[in-house]
Specification:
This protein is mainly alpha-helical. It is built from 17 helices and no strands. The longest helix is centred in the last third of the chain and has 35 residues. Its main location: membrane.
Length: 434
């Protein structure tokens, strides 16, 4: 199928939808641990309460990918899935900050993450479908830039609301700060509208008549989709298999960071472990600021990486970024006060986050057959969520015994794991698949 060369503006427009998708993920990263603790959760239980994302990603993304590969809807192969997913995501974000109890918030996160995953996987495949191979680096790294921008805004929204006069200590009936509630409402508005913008500005290409006929002749339904997933797993390209080891350490480490950064800042900067204290609420706002900064770094870095990735190769750029993040994770727990020094480790973490959301997909898109882009993008998400599931199950077992029950030691562990991920990506051998 002929793919027209897209302008920079078109590549930007087709990725605007990622702003809404990743704003939702940013809200979760910044707020779900403190929300859970405000509703009564204990520190060691946090990984289990975060299981919704990994489990729904494991189940939903490969299935949606396989289904979308065979879809012949008049709106396109991918569009129906990410429009419906974005709408459900908006509804979940609206309800989350009004959760009356811990069980309600935990259950709602399962619905929210399922909706996010319905949207996410076809969106990855949409970029791969729409762009020529020589534009993959620009497409996926622009997507990574929108991830950085969206999560910058998601992290900073509560602090901005406080800056403009809202009371940071004003609480809802369930004990959740009002500024957090408003941030989720903003996310709900962005989730659907940004995806709709991308669909309108850069619609999917119509399939050629022979490809349409081939797809319509294929069996439909969940059964054939599951069979396609199994077939694709058995025939997985070697490059994709090698990326699995990198993903294991990379995503285990990032989950450690997201879950335990607020408790770490509360302990190291504000000297408190009490989730109901003013110091803990200050740590939530501080995490919004440093998290917003590292996502801003990711936003700029992802664009800046494009020429380096084209010239040096995605794996070398990604390895450098992961080593920078590993150093940042080790520096972070030793900083005991607010100030500019706290933002220094975030430069490395931001470089890695900008690369994580772009460069592995550059490596992947160049190694998979185009007609199976959906199912392989979905399977690649298994390389993300399986490490998250392993983290959720194993970290509570070592939290007290090996890590001393201290959140700052979890951050140090994350640094070790990201360094191992950097070593693994350097061992990936790339090859093209037409």
């Amino acid at each position: 199928m002929h793919k027209p060369h897209l302008s920079f503006t078109q590549i930007v427009n087709m990725n605007v939808g990622f702003l809404g998708i990743q704003f939702s993920f940013g809200l979760q990263q910044a707020n779900m641990s403190p929300v859970y603790q405000m509703l009564g959760a204990e520190g060691k239980d946090l990984p289990l309460l975060w299981l919704a994302g990994p489990v729904t990603g494991l189940l939903v993304q490969p299935l949606i990918g396989a289904l979308s590969d065979r879809t012949t809807h008049r709106w396109g192969r991918r569009t129906p899935y990410f429009l419906i997913g974005a709408l459900l995501c908006s509804l979940g974000l609206l309800a989350m900050p009004f959760s009356p109890a811990l069980w309600f918030a935990a259950g709602l996160l399962w619905i929210l993450d399922a909706a996010n995953n319905v949207t996410m996987e076809p969106y990855r495949a949409y970029v791969s479908d729409r762009l020529r191979p020589e534009q993959h680096a620009s497409g996926f790294l622009t997507q990574a830039s929108f991830t950085g921008l969206a999560q910058t805004l998601a992290y900073l929204t509560p602090s901005l609301l406080v800056f403009f006069g809202m009371n940071k200590d004003a609480l809802g009936a369930n004990g959740i700060p009002v500024v957090t509630t408003l941030a989720f409402i903003v996310g709900a508005l962005l989730s659907f509208t940004t995806v709709w913008w991308s669909v309108r500005k850069v619609p999917e290409l119509p399939l050629p008549a022979e490809e349409l006929a081939r797809l319509r002749a294929l069996p439909r339904g969940v059964g054939p989709a599951l069979a396609e997933i199994w077939s694709a797993l058995r025939e997985m390209p070697p490059t994709m298999r090698q990326l699995g080891w990198m993903a294991l350490f990379q995503w285990y480490g990032m989950m450690c960071y997201w879950i335990y950064i607020v408790p770490t800042l509360a302990a190291t900067v504000f000297g408190t472990d009490d989730p109901h204290s003013a110091g803990f609420r200050d740590a939530v706002l501080l995490n919004g600021q440093v998290g917003g900064f590292y996502n801003a770094v990711a936003f700029v870095a992802a664009f800046a990486m494009v020429p380096f990735t084209k010239r040096l190769g995605a794996k070398w750029v990604h390895a450098f970024a992961l080593f920078a993040a590993a150093a940042g994770m080790w520096l972070l727990p030793g900083i005991r006060s607010e100030g500019w020094l706290l933002f220094l480790p975030m430069v490395g973490i931001g470089l890695a986050w900008g690369s994580i959301m772009g460069n592995p997909y550059v490596l992947l898109a160049g190694s998979i057959p185009p007609e199976r882009a959906g199912v392989y993008m979905g399977i690649f998400n298994m390389f993300i969520v399986i490490p998250m599931l392993i983290q959720a199950v194993t970290l509570p077992l070592i939290y007290d015994s090996l890590l001393g029950g201290r959140p700052e030691n979890v951050i140090r562990l994350a640094g070790v794991l990201l360094a191992l991920a950097a070593v693994c990506v350097l061992r990936v051998r790339t090859e093209k698949t037409s």
